[in-house]
Amino acid sequence: MSEITIRAAVPGDAERIAAIHHEAVVGERGRGDYDGVQIDAWAHAHTAAELREPMATRLFLVAESAGEPVGYAQLDLDKALIRSIYVAVDHQHCGVGARLGRALLEAGAEAGLAVLELDSSLNAVSFYQGLGFRAIADVDHRFRNGAVMRCVHMMRDLEQADPA
After folding, report:
1. pLDDT for 18-37, tens place per residue?
2. Of 20, 70, 141, 152, which one is least surrounded by beta carbons within 10 A?
3. Structural domains for the chain
């Protein structure tokens, strides 16, 4: 695998970001945390066109390998909320997600935030725990089509030492 670089996303990345999201979520099918209806709703949560608005108002980062986006993350600084971290299937378990997560933690700290929160899918709880987040409560995420997905609300104090 070539070197991974992290950069700010640009509107032209929206198509690839939507594809990474879809690919990563569909890759969860059959793992047992969610059924097919939940996976389908989650995989189709946002189109490229729908991503462009939050890309303009939130911190969106892209991880690139050989000039191609292979992962992305988004942080809503106004709400101190990580909205997503997704990595293309062929780049998972290689540290790309952790690099994106640490970049969001650094950005939050630089913005003067004391804590960051997020709602994690069940399959990603241990990933976020590795970044120093702790589980607060089980929550339900409702999609536009009415499907409900169980998640875990998590929080991290930005003043704590980086666990990595």
Report:
1. 999 999 999 887 778 898 88
2. 141
3. 4-157 (3.40.630.30)
